[in-house]
Automatic annotation (TrEMBL):
One of its GO terms (cellular component) is extracellular space. The keyword RNA-binding does not apply. Belongs to the FAM3 family. Residues 98-185 form the ILEI/PANDER domain. The gene is Fam3d. It comes from Nannospalax galili (Northern Israeli blind subterranean mole rat). Its main location: secreted. GO terms for biological process: aorta development; negative regulation of insulin secretion; neutrophil homeostasis; neutrophil migration; positive regulation of macrophage antigen processing and presentation; signal transduction. This is FAM3 metabolism regulating signaling molecule D. The chain crosses the membrane at residues 6-23.
Length: 223
């Protein structure tokens, strides 16, 4: 009896200790599960602060590319181009220059194909003619002016931009501001274009009109 009584006592104490350990773990586990949702609450708040591509005022629908083009400001700040949230040309990327800055993008994939900066004040306009003459079909063409896009402008280049859907290339001149998005096989005029003539009466800067910004959603070319 004594031995079995001792065994019962040991078993009882063991059971108490086991229960205490279990309850302690169980309670701290519960504390963790209470804490976890509180921690998870932070995640939806962060995803609510989603920025639109290129900082557009509202997001583009599916099968549209977001873009934003800014011309240069006078001869001081270079132009910039954003396409599908990627800054493809800008002073920070150090790939813009005075004159005309042109980027070619695959209209189906949105992949950037080529970029070029063409000095239209003292450069040779034949480089821009060659660049524009080699554009493959279904290519989007983004253009931003900086300082002077007009001095070396010629009829051949005006015609090439006209064929890409430009309404203003025909009157582009010395120190005008111009931003444009066109396409190789555009049948109509592009809706994506802004133009400001250099006019001493209305110029924002001394010698230059205000910089221009153009943003929007351009439909992806689907076959
Ligand atoms: C554009 O992308 C499509 C799909 O990948 C491809 O078939 C076409 O050749 C590309 N065009 C150019 C000019 O890269």
């Amino acid at each position: 009896m004594r031995v079995s009584g001792l065994i019962r006592l040991v078993a009882f104490v063991f059971a108490l200790v086991a229960m205490w350990l279990f309850l302690r773990n169980y309670i701290s586990f519960n504390r963790n599960t209470i804490r976890l949702p509180r921690w998870l609450e932070l995640v939806p708040k962060e995803t609510l602060v989603l920025k639109t591509k290129c900082g557009l005022s509202k997001p583009c629908p599916a099968n549209f590319f977001a873009f934003k083009i800014s011309s240069g400001a006078a001869n001081v700040v270079g132009p910039s181009m954003c396409f599908e949230n990627e800054i493809i040309m800008s002073p920070v990327r150090n790939n813009v220059g005075r004159g005309l800055n042109v980027a070619l993008v695959n209209g189906t994939t949105g992949q950037v194909l080529r970029k070029g900066s063409f000095d239209m004040y003292s450069g040779d306009p034949k480089h821009l003619v060659e660049f524009l003459a080699e554009i493959p079909d279904s290519t989007l063409v983004l253009v931003a002016s900086y300082d002077d896009p007009g001095t070396k402008m010629n009829e051949e280049i005006r015609k090439l931009f006209f064929n890409l859907g430009s309404s203003y290339a025909k009157e582009l001149g010395f120190r005008d501001s111009w931003v444009f998005l066109g396409a190789k096989d555009l049948k109509n005029k592009s809706p994506f274009e802004q133009f400001l003539k250099n006019n001493p009466e209305t110029n924002k800067y001394e010698g230059w009109p205000e910089l221009l910004e153009l943003e929007g959603c351009v439909p992806r070319k689907v076959y």
